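Question (not urgent): is this output format expected?
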Amino acid sequence: MTARLTVCGLGPGGSDRVTAATVDALQGADALYLRTSRHPTASLAPPTAATFDHLYDRAESFAEVYRQIAETLVEAAFERPEGGVVYAVPGSPLVLESSVRRLQADDRVELDVLPSLSFLDEVWARLGIDPVEESVRLIDGHQFAVQAASERGPLLVAHVHDRWVLSDIKLAIDAGDEQRAVVLQRLGTDDEHIAEVSWPDLDRLVEPDHLTSLYLPEVIAPVGQELARTVALMHRLRQQCPWDREQTHDSLRPYLVEETYEVLDALEAVGMGASSDGAGYEHLEEELGDLWFQILFHAELATEAGQFTIADVARSVHQKMVRRHPHVFTELQVAGPDDVVANWERIKDDEKQRSSALDGIPTGLPALALAAKLLSRAAKAGAAADPGALGRRLEAVLPADAGGDDFGRVLLAVVRLAQDRGIEPEDALRRATLAAARRFRAAEERGRNPGIDWALG
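Got this back:
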C-alpha cells in the first residue's frame, strides 16, 4: 500500500510568480507542510501550516533534516489515505530540492508534483542568456570544489546562503581581481539585488541569504579540488562526528604539538636517506596531511566563532609572503640570503611594532629551543650575557675544541643529575629562561644595556 502526497513550489520569491495550481493546493490542503517559512511567498500559506524550520536549528546536518522531513511527511500521508497532504518548498520542487528527491525515491509514497517556476527562470531573464546555448552548468555551493573541478565556466552556483559557503567557494579558486562574479539576490522580489564583485571581495562585501546565487561567466583559475574537499570534510565532521563536535582550541593543542613533531620525524627520515624508494616521502606526505588537518580544525573553530575562515588564513599568509619578499615582487636588489633575512626581520619589526628585542618569541617552544632562541635574539640586540660562576666552571671543563657530541654529553649529564634529584629538567630550564627574559625586558625598559649578568643571574 502506498500513500499519496502532493508537492508544490512557492516560486522564486514574488507572489506573482506562484502558479494558480500551487495557490489552489495551499488553500485546499487538509494538512499543509512548508519546508521553511523563511521564504517571501510562504506568507500565502494559512497560519495553520506546519513548518520544518525547527529541524534546521537542531539537526546535525542537512542530510538529517531532509531524512526527518521525509519521515514526517510519509507518516502524515498514511494518516490520510484519501490524500490531502501537501508539501510546499521554495522555488520549484524539481530544482535543488533534496527532500523531494528523497521522497521520490521512497516506494512507500506516491507523489503528485506540481511544476513551478524556479529561481533559474529569474536568473536567465536577468542575465539575458540562454543557458542551453551558453552551456551553463548548475553547481551546488555546498559541493563547489568537487562539482566545479576542472570547469572553466560559465557556472551558476546555487545554495549560497551563508558566508562560510562563500569562503569555501573563494578558497577553491586561486584568483585575484581578474576573477569576477555576478551576485544575484532575492530575484523577483521588491528587494532584488544584482551586483558584480571581484573574487577577493566575495566573502567580504556580500551578505548572503537563502535567495542568493552566483554566476561565473568564466573561471580563470582551476579549482583547488583536493584542498577544498578537506575543508568540506572538516565541515561535515564538525556536524556529524560526536568527538569532532566537542573539540575546542584548548583540547586540540596536544594533537597540534604531536603532529608537528611527527612531521619533524618524517623530515629527519627523508634527510637520512630513507626515501631512496620513496617510502620516506610517502610518510612525509601523510604527516603533512595530518598537520594540515589540525590547521583546518582550528580555522573551522574560528569560522564558527565568526572570527576568520581558512580562506582568510590563506589570503593573509599570501599577503605576508609578498610583503616580506620585496626582492621578488618589487625592484629591490639583494646580494644573497643574508640580505633576504635582514630585510625579513626589518619588515617584520615594522609590521609588529615591537617594543622589545624578545617580542614574538613563542613561549610554547620546548625549553631548550626557547633558551637558544632567546639568547640568539638578545645577542642580536647587542646583549652579551655573563656566564656566571657556573658557566665559567663549565668553560674550564670543556676544551676550546669541544664539539657537538661533547656538549650533548654535558646536557645529558645535567638531565640525569636533575632526574636523580627529583627535578624536571624541562620545567627547570623553562623557568630559568623566562626569568632571564624578564630581567632582560626590565633592563630594556630602564634604558640600560641588558648585557651584565642578565641571563644566568
